[in-house]
Amino acid sequence: MLPQASPLPPGDSTVALPSGSVRIRYKASTTDRNGILVVFSGFRKKGTLDFAGTSVRPIRNDIIWVYDEFGPEPSERYYMLDRGTLAPRTLIVELFNHLMTVFHVNEQAFTFAGFSKGGSAALYYSLVLGVRAGIIVAPQLAIGSYVTAYWPRIADSMLGSNPSSSDIARADALIPNAIRAARSSETSIYLVTSEADPLWESEILPAMTALERLNNFNLIKTNSPLVTEHIDVTPYNVPVIQGLCLLTLDGITPSIPFAENGKPRNIAPQAPDSFAQTGRAMLLQTHSEGSRIFPEIDTFIVGDPVNTHGTLNRNLLVGNARFRLGSVIDKRASWRNFDKRFVDYSAAKSATLAHRGIDISDLPEGRHRVVAEISYPGNPQEVVTTEVRSKRPIGCLAVSARQHRLFFLQAAAEGTTATVVDPDTLPSHNSCVHVDVLGINASDHRLRLRGRFFPPGLIAEQWGDCEYRLMLDDGQLLTSIELGLLDRPHESLPNTLRRAYFSDMNLEGIDISGLPRRRYLLYVVAFNASVLARTRPLGILDCSNKGTSLDAITQRQSEV
Length: 560
What we know:
Helices cover 18% and strands 35% of the residues. The protein has eleven helices and 30 strands. Strands 21, 22, 23, 24, 25, 26, 27, 28, 29 and 30 form a ten-stranded mixed β-sheet that branches. A nine-stranded mixed β-sheet has the order 1-2-4-3-5-6-7-8-9, with helices on both faces. The longest helix is centred in the first third of the chain and has 17 residues, at 87-103. InterPro entries: AB_hydrolase_fold.
């Protein structure tokens, strides 16, 4: 017997429907379960989806993510409105009917889930379409007023340019009307929210009476000092969301009319018994601009609250060089650094003073240890020195043009180091370099550069696994230009190198019109958290008063 064909293609696809099309992503079931999870997303970076990473690993059912991309120029529409019309609603209903057909199921096979904007859509369509369950996290209910106040660009797309008060009111009424019309619905609604979310008073409370009249309404309210704003509600409740998905997808709809999770803590600051305590410095992220790096680090004394500016003095030491750090208020730092009990670390995040960055130009060549110094203003002589660590590997490259040096920062769980090196001392790789395009476009006079570079140890399977820079070296100054990555699998390379392919950004070429009149050696540098490598010389760019020319250097010429 031949295996049954999948009802949908795996991954991203576009479903053609009578009134248009809808873009979705599909992950097939890994068991014989019949329940189907449909996920609606909140406001996100274009092309990304909520609940699409490790959070869904326990869910073995079919999962369908729906992109909120509607209208002539596809963008977010709360899955409901496009320029004042219900065209997205029509498409969602048609998609739902299509899914029931291809999966050979009825409404009771489905659980809808959504977060923030996606929670609004999941609530609306759970009730309108009569599915088994809706898992609704931190939604907005008066969507017209909300989007007008906080997302005016999207409001124009949803409601039309310069929407009137009646346009906004009609959008506001969509979800409340659906709630009132569904009083006899058997759909189980699980609303996950928190009074710490500012939307609790403005969005949830006004609708609570109508929600409680639903036959199967369940309220789960989070009360935890780790949840302090709207964006905290979903990540804090991932275990709850997973549990509800697993139960409802198996046809189990528990009745929990009201439950409260989280554990309130005494968060009053407590003076340390002594200064002989443990310091911690966790690098969150960093980027570079020219010869400056911009690290963001959680720095604190373990167990001692740091909740206002000026609570601690912090310095970052790179070798023997010392750089002052300032505090940044970020309430999620308490969550990031939670360990057995709640401590208010809301001012633990630190960054360079005035966010000016750290200039690495004067650092000597060599490999330097990176540590943090932490002290209290009233006792500056008692300093705790601690390694700067990172929960995930981080690599960052800065370029000192005049000193002709590269600054390579590597962070991991064991600690952080910074290597200052002249790129001329790096080995020039030949065999792992393949240039497909190198030239100056005749029509726009921009530099085109595309090819592969996969030095030993490099991983480039996912976006962001590595970075590439084009170096223009005139012997005195070193110019660095960021390159993009392209997904270019190759039969002779492992999948871990499918994106080890550099390109001029957005395939638009590199503007070289502003370069000083000099002669430049071109090569590419690749780096991630564990690798820093450069290619062989790729070409000579000659910018003179007579014009600009480029002579490519072949691999054979480079080897001579």
